[in-house]
Amino acid sequence: MSERDPRPAPRLRSAPPSRTVSSARTAPAAAPVCFEGVGVVTDGIVLLLEASGSAAAGEVLALTGANGSGKTTLLRVLAGQLTPTAGEVLIQGRAPDDRDPACRSALAALIGPPQTARDLTVAEHLQFIAATWGSGAAEARDRADDLLAELAITPLAQRFPHELSSGQTQLVSLALIFARPGRVLLLDEPEQRLDPDRLGLVIAAIRARAAAGAAVVLATHSPRLLEELADDRLHLEDAL
Length: 240
Fold this sequence. Notes:
31% of the residues lie in helices and 21% in strands.
């Protein structure tokens, strides 16, 4: 199990009476992730009240709130998968667009299960992703081996995705995201279906990527993840 991080507890500002979203801080323009006044309304339904915040390089911003408060919606906006009704988002100084090669090379996101091929093993998936982002064959194999070891899933290397348990699938999904470059890392509830030991491995893996300079934004319901990882916290109020 990972060692308890000695950093102080993440900051939290309470939501104002108007039910707007509490902001972690005013977003500095130079931060890799900046969003200001972001709201989403679809067919007259409010999916996300106006949210503002930022994540600097090497920082972990945790999104908290009840189910339906807009955490996943905000992550999808940051990833360029959903256009906000209001507000502005900048990722590495650019508006996010998942069809923009520069955006794709800067941003790695786990929002829902990743697509997998039924006839490729876990190791082959990891090697394929590493190769897609410029690694040679030998380097891709080494990268896959390192990720398997980091998340203690080396015994799953020759398994196919459809043969995995739900917890194993979550670990492999995270490995697939970590296999690609990402100066910005977006994660939707990375603690899902993990036992305490495996959660410790995931916390250590996310912390290592933040220490290497990634800006991390994650949605979570895990008090442990919040305590051990978050540098800052943005609590979203229920839009209903």
